[in-house]
Amino acid sequence: MLGMLPSQSLPLVGLLLFALVGAALAPVALTIANGRLVDVVSGAAVHGQAAALRHVTMLGVLIALGFLLQQLLVPVAQQAADALGRRLTRQLRDRVMAASLGPAGVGHLEDTDTLDLVTGAQGVGTAGFTPRDALIATANIGVARLQAVACAALIAVFHWWLALALLAGFGILTTGVVADYRRGHQALMGTPARLRRPSYVRDFAREPEAAKEIRVFGLRDWLDLRFHQEWRIAMAGLWRSRRDGRLLMPLLSAGVMAMQLWGFTVLGLAASHGDLSAGRFTAYAGALLGLSAVMGVSPDNVKIDQGAAAIPLVRALERALPSGGPDATAPAPVGGPAPTVRFEAVSFRYPGRAEPVFSGFDLDIEAGRSLAVVGVNGAGKSTLVKLLSGMYRPQSGRILIDGVPLAESGTGRWQRRIGAVFQDFVHYELSAADNVGLGAVEHLGDLDGLRLCADRAGATELIDRLDQGWQSMLSSKFPGGRDLSGGEWQRLALARALFAVRHGARLLILDEPASALDVRAEAELNDRFLSLTEGVTSVLISHRFSTTRRADRIVVLEHGTVLESGSHDELVAADGAYARMFRIQADRFTGPRAGGGARG
Ligand SMILES: Nc1ncnc2c1ncn2[C@@H]1O[C@H](COP(=O)(O)OP(=O)(O)OP(=O)(O)O)[C@@H](O)[C@H]1O
Fold this sequence. Notes:
This protein has helices at about 10-40, 45, 50-100, 110-120, 130-160, 160-190, 190-205, 210-215, 220-245, 250-270, 280-295, 300-310, 310-320, 380-390, 405-410, 410-415, 430-435, 445-455, 460-465, 485-500, 520-530, 545-550, 570-575, 575-590; strands at about 340-350, 360-365, 370-375, 395-400, 405, 420, 505-510, 535-540, 555-560, 560-565. By secondary structure, it is α/β, with parallel strands linked by helices.
């Protein structure tokens, strides 16, 4: 942490050091002046009253100045540490954010080792202490330690071995207790995955999305119980270490008392033998008291350990998540022709899973054409989309974009050429304009484009109905804001993907784009499908055959392999798996029980 300070601000570091040294030396100077005062007063009879008065006045002024300096320098040191600490905390937060957003893929978000690092780097489980807190605590402890050394230096003028013995004794006692605190902290930080569990339960109870189920299923007491169970498991290591070290504090106190007693005995004996004047005795005794007062352990030690613990984890996170390379901040797409995509002998298995989703998978996606992917749950449709959009890398085989392997041409650049409605698309708690405009963030001001894309996605009527139109805040968590229905959000997500296409994206991915739409909206989307996919290469995933039948080509996926491929008419004529699935769905609308089929 200290090594990172000069790059924050050299003048602030200079001010901090100056204030620390000043604040540490001032009390020692006061102790010396006190001793002198005692000598001057007791020697007044010998040296004359006038001379003593002069001395006393001078020492009084010096003591007042020293006191003032001490009062001023401690807050100055704290302010300097605070300012440096704020900069450091901000820089580390930025680095965690940059590291988390660095990779082009999303696989790291499912890797428990990386999640452990993210948890630690964000300071979870550290009682909320930041590097700023750690730095302020370091300044406090720094003053104390410097003061201890200065006190020891003063005692050394009397007997160097006494100073050394006191310093070493107090040092050993303090180090022992600090090490004990550290063990406790490491016991806690060694279990980030366990810490995430109570955090999950606590955060879950606050999620508006979970509120309904918590009430309907009566989960309140269970959540409470579960949180405490998980918390006990997570904290067990820390508590055990605290229990093991419970005798340490009384031992430390006894140790400090014994050292003090010994020190005073040595001083007292010297004074009684006439080897020490009353003034010197006062000064050394003051130094001895000062030395023992600043030793020991305070909450500052905990703040240093916990607040600075994130720093090595931030470094480890940066090493674990190398950025996506030169294309990590890829430029905006510039349009151009629609791409061809080819999966060549692609094999892919999710991290931690034994079963591969794809092994030796081949697929061609033609330029400017629409491809629909159908198949039962778990067939691999969404995984196909994740591979296609570079969220995961295949373990073997290649994905070629216009003949160039994706791994070579740059995933970030490719991702910017994609407009997508993912199955789990985002509800941005922002304005309607932002919700659509974030499809091409460089063109947020393109109001005509926003309107056009909303229109094509069937969202115009919905936006017109909002109190403040495009500027309406789409979240009930903000004053004047409001939430939307599932289908309304889905239309905005489609408008967002179309806005990306308007501004240069050339691959359109639609993963279940109609799952929340009503019958009328779905029919409108189907009618517009050809115009929506015009000029782009598109991949559509849907369980609704009324939508997929519009695609130029349909592939049926089963267990990660292409079972059938062809146009709707060809596949129906072939009378295979596709035809069977199509008939089941069609029968639900046309058969005797079709009355309830509108939701089918
Ligand atoms: N993040 C993940 N980690 C591990 N396994 C996963 C993950 N996501 C999906 N799977 C597994 O991969 C297989 C393919 O899942 P995928 O989501 O691609 O299926 P799908 O065809 O899109 O299904 P659905 O129609 O239900 O959306 C399934 O066995 C699933 O359990």
